[in-house]
Amino acid sequence: MRFKLSGLKPHTDILKQIAGLTGDKELYLVGGAVRDLFLERKTLDLDFAVQGSGMKFASRVARKMKGAFVTLSEEEDEARVVIRKELILDFRGFKRSIMDDLASRDFTINAMALPVKALLEGQDLSPIDPFGGINDIEKGLVCAVDPGSIKADPLRILRAYRFAAQLRFRIDSALEHEAESTSLEGVARERIAYELMLILGFPRVYPLINRMIVAGLMQQIFPFDEFWADYAVRSHSLAVLGTLERMLEERRFPPLIRERIEEIAADPHRTALLKLATLFHDVSKPETKVRTDNGRMHFYGHDTKGARKMRRTLQKELRFSRADAEYVEQVIARHMHLHLIATGPQLTERAMRRFSRMCADVASEVMLLDLADGFATAGRTRHLEYTIVKILELAIQDAKRAAFVPLVNGHDLIALGLEPGPIFKVILGELEELQWERKITTKEEGLAIVKERLKEGEYNLPDRGPTSSSQ
Predict the structure, then answer these.
(1) In terms of DSSP H, where are the helices of 360-409?
(2) Which parts of the sequence belong to the HD/PDEase domain (predicted)?
């Protein structure tokens, strides 16, 4: 495969400025930028390998381009320059040759290089590709440059699954075998959480999550022994996750439900949190399982107990923010509510309003989780869809009424000479209905109707009796 500069046209001026600072030093475009050129993907991050000190060179670039300088690793001689919000430049130095730099990289698809000066001269180039990265890209494989390097940096195994999710690639069998013996014990929890959230933020990652379970990685991140040991609960939870992911891409639902789906699907972080809640919505079922005298199985309190467990794990173990941990907690804690309303003897406005009030900011998420749960369990969700539409319609109606400002009020009726009393409720109620129906749009129109009906004697006004002046 030969590369041209066309994929880098948006960054040509920046590349020229950077190349102008190198002197006689070698400068290469490396890593994900080269990979994305081949895949014709837009990239907002450019990785460079520079002969000599990467940090010193990055500092010069930052000064020249008035960017922000960030040290990434003094040990690895890596630094970052942020030119603007949408463009990040990473630099790493190499002492002997570019081959040494590429040999130290994680995966073959990221271990390719293109000389920047030759690119700017308009030359057609084949990348420096000592480990077969192009071949692996064509096969759709994530392969380690050196499988043994996973032991030295176990986080790389999660990065492998992240690249597989991002690029829709498969994990190489040798790398999956390495994953089965990889311990995440010494890896910073925040870095694990970061990679996991990136994975979950991509669409259709259910098969990859399943592979991570087979490799034992998810069990290390979430040490819920009883959950993982219960095949029925675990397999159902995975099925619900797979169903949810399909729902996030489908358009078959009624418009009100589809709006909620599209809103969540447009936010990768929110999507990832919902997927976490979905995968572990039944995490406490194994420990709350009881069999009654009639042989039926019950899981009393599994929703609230599981919600607390997930919040503790996310916040204390994985260092999630309090807001994100509480978000997942609330989705899990409320995930039975919609089912109870939908299968109840009667769908009342009181029950629907109570659902909206209790679920508050996670109502849409609870609805989607319950839809996925219902479909994975019974293969149909028509009763749930009907209930959700009714809840959403009522919520819209309530919101409109809350924002409703009557054109005519009691003071206006008093100004017409009417005395406060039960008749006010009748008159104002009629006027509000006319206003809702857009049959009146001004105060004057409303008062004109009242005057006309007073004149016609349509209102049953109380007899005032004799006035004091007539006694």
Answers:
(1) 363-378, 382-402
(2) 229-387
